[in-house]
Write a structure and sequence with these properties.
Layout lengths: L11 E5 H4 L4 E12 L1 H5 L8 E16 L12 E6 L5 E6 L2 E7 L4 E8 L8 E7 L3 E9 L9 E10 L2 E10 L9 E4 L2 E5 L13 E11 L5 E11 L8 E4 L9 E5 L3
Parallel strand pairs: 3-7
Antiparallel strand pairs: 1-4, 2-3, 4-5, 5-17, 6-7, 8-9, 9-13, 10-11, 10-14, 12-13, 14-15, 15-16
Length: 263
């Protein structure tokens, strides 16, 4: 059904954060609700269907307020998208790399961007080598993104495999400005791992083993991004360049969180 009295829909809107900042965006959705009782409204003898559709229009608006110290370009110029639901509530798709808060203000939802990180700084851990090129119990990881001070938390999980079978694992949870867990030392962007005796039952000289290192980086907005690597080596053998396979980095789809506006 169309007509001059039917409002034009604008169900969703999205753009880069620099283009959204300070710009009010209006959204509108037409809901067609099926009703019964048309004959009683028209009077007896009306030869029409008793069902009819009633137009109910819901509206909402939002704008992005830039309150971050860094520029949109420094945060990677990600996109924010808003969708209006049948109830009139707004659903926002906001990258997990952005720190934000939603505020209801004069019949409008304000998306305040308070900080964040560039997404390309995530998942940039590299294996730097074994201690003295041979000590399988001690090795160093390098975070080329240097992100720990700007994150909510980091978690390293190291699993040991032998003959394609998982034998054991150990996890190291890290919170910025808090003491490092036993067996892990952090110096700037260097993570020094000391497995101590945890894997000793399998770390026998001359035996091939594989480390699967799973890394979780939790942003201040609560999104978790995973990366990691697999390292194949022979225990106690001098290995300047062990066999390393890095996991693929996260995609943009993985970085989006759906958040609903407050009523």
């Amino acid at each position: 059904m169309q007509g001059a009295d039917i409002p034009k829909e604008q169900i969703s809107y999205g753009d880069r954060i620099s283009r959204l900042a300070g710009k009010p965006i209006a959204l509108l959705k037409n809901n067609w609700v099926e009703k019964t009782g048309l004959r009683s409204l028209l009077g007896t003898g009306s030869e029409v269907s008793d069902t009819y559709r009633l137009l109910q229009t819901v509206q909402g608006s939002f704008k992005v307020a830039w309150q971050a110290a860094k520029s949109p370009q420094e945060l990677g110029e990600p996109e924010i998208k808003a969708v209006i639901t049948e109830s009139g509530q707004l659903r926002f798709e906001i990258p997990g790399t952005l720190e934000h808060k939603l505020i209801n203000q004069q019949n409008q939802t304000v998306v305040a961007i308070t900080g964040g990180i560039h997404p390309e700084r995530l998942g940039r851990f590299k294996f730097k080598g074994l201690a003295r090129f041979r000590d399988a119990r001690n090795f160093t990881l390098l975070d080329e993104g240097s992100l720990l001070p700007e994150l909510k938390a980091v978690k390293l999980t190291i699993s040991l495999y032998q003959n394609n079978s998982k034998k054991s694992e150990i996890s190291y949870p890290l919170i910025p400005q808090s003491p490092s867990p036993d067996g892990l030392s952090v110096w700037g962007n260097l993570y020094k791992v000391n497995l101590r005796t945890h894997f000793d039952s399998w770390l026998q000289g001359g035996q091939p083993v594989e480390y699967d290192i799973h890394i979780e980086q939790i942003t201040r907005s609560g999104a978790t991004y995973t990366s990691g690597m697999k390292i194949n080596l022979i225990v106690d053998k001098v290995t300047p360049s062990p066999d390393i396979q890095y996991y693929p980095q996260n995609t943009k789809k993985d970085m989006v969180k759906s958040i609903y506006s407050p009523y």
